[in-house]
Amino acid sequence: MPATTRAAQRHTLVVLAVTQIVGTVGVGVAPSIGVLLAGEVTANPAWAGLARTASTLGAALFGLPLGALAARFGRRLALAGGWWAAAGGGALLVIAAQWDQIMCLFVGLLLIGAGSAVSLQARFAATDLAEPHHRARALALVVWVGTIGNVLGPNLGVPAQYMTSATGLTVYAGAFLIAAACLALAGTAVFVWLRPDPLLLLEKTTTTGPRPATARLRGGARRIFAEIRENPQARLAVVAIVTAQIVMVAIMTMAPVHVTNDGGSVTVVGITISLHIAGMYALSPLVGALADRAGHRATIAIGILVLLASLAAGIAEPDQMLWMTVSMILLGVGWSFVNVAGSALFSAVVSPERRASAQGGVDALSNLGGATAAFLAGPLLAATGFSALSAIAIVALLPLIGLLATRNSRAISPR
Known about the structure:
Protein name: MFS transporter
Helix content: over 70%
Shape: globular
CATH class: Mainly Alpha
Strand content: under 5%
Distance between the termini: 22 Å
Radius of gyration: 20 Å
Domain Major facilitator superfamily (MFS) profile: 12-408
CATH topology: Growth Hormone, Chain: A
Keywords: Membrane, Transmembrane, Transmembrane helix
Subcellular location: Cell membrane
Number of strands: 0
InterPro entries: MFS, MFS_dom, MFS_trans_sf
Number of helices: 19
CATH superfamily: MFS general substrate transporter like domains
Largest sheet: none
């Protein structure tokens, strides 16, 4: 790799790391405070799952457009635009929290989902200029630094309490005001500092000239399905990413509702979700190094085992706070193994002409699956309970386990 490209990769990782930390503070508020806000504004706890569906659906809806935007104009404009859209959603949620505006609640959560889409696409941006044997590590680094913001986000209610007397805002409104400011700052930082653009530099150094805009944009929604159909390695990666997201979102969505129904406070919910999110991101560098060294398939298999352990704890002792905490931490760790390894595998095998659009497509599929899981999790929890919901999540893992165990999957593994 030329020295100029290595320097550009180092600069890219620094910018992505800084903006991930700041932006994910705003994104991290949705899984806890956003869910609780929905129950308060609508006066119906069953709406909590629908609220989470709105933010996850927003991430799904923004995945493909942001991927197409990156393919046309580069990562800088796509990432900045996504952060700014999420900031607008945060501002709407301030209005929803302060004046109980249901329309602002759901539109705001839909828009703040763009922050999740950007956070996911930033991990792919980290691989654009990475050397092949360091691709998973670069991806994992960007995932890892999001730990700081994602752990702080669910606890924004704490500083918001101190803002109440000075601003007159409710605790929830204050939390979303902080979130909106962080999201706007992240967008501005990536827009100003992400130069040279890693995706455009990659295209410049690997092709004789830029591809026509129509070639980049045509059939964006079909590109991910073409990769899944034509490329068995990409198919395994996509199934892994989507399955992990479905299982994680279904359980994480209902954990705050289950804990509060058992008498847990907002503080307990914040701590539990923060520990879960720490599990999602804190070990990412080690997971990335393992994926580069031991292989993507082996790392995905480890993640599945950890997810099964998490769900078993949720089935056995759902009313014991200690076991719930253990279950949520393991849920995050298992997701990390499967998601990091699956994402690195996808980046390694996706065809260059489809890279940005297909990456946006896999994130859209992942978040659409998560949105569906969140929507169904609420009624399932109400009808059956947390243990049954965990058992259903185990069933959702079976197709991935079957695909990973097939001879074809073993044959295609790059490690």
